[in-house]
């Protein structure tokens, strides 16, 4: 993928990955290897953490649509090699936290995904994105559950 087209975003925001939406990949070992390598990259690239987590959900039975998403992530990373966590000298005079959740975002289980990030001064010190274990009946309930992480 040295000469691949660069993508502006790591994921197509209009589509959701599903378990049985296309044919199985011809080489599941390659899929698992690439997904595992991207998992390591998420330590310094929180911008791809959500979508990498999504493709890793299908490591047991990867499909061609999942592999296409995996390649899209790689094309995004190729165009954003200078992105990553940067630590700046700053007076840690404020602690800021941001949180968000979707409502029934997974097309297979209807579970919500939530996440948060915490900044000390200008530096990010903690973040997380995960699928919620229980179902939410409304977006307000999904947001409430997000605050319980």
Automatic annotation (TrEMBL):
<feature type="region of interest" description="Disordered">
    <location>
        <begin position="1"/>
        <end position="23"/>
    </location>
</feature>
<protein>
    <recommendedName>
        <fullName>Mitochondrial protein</fullName>
    </recommendedName>
</protein>
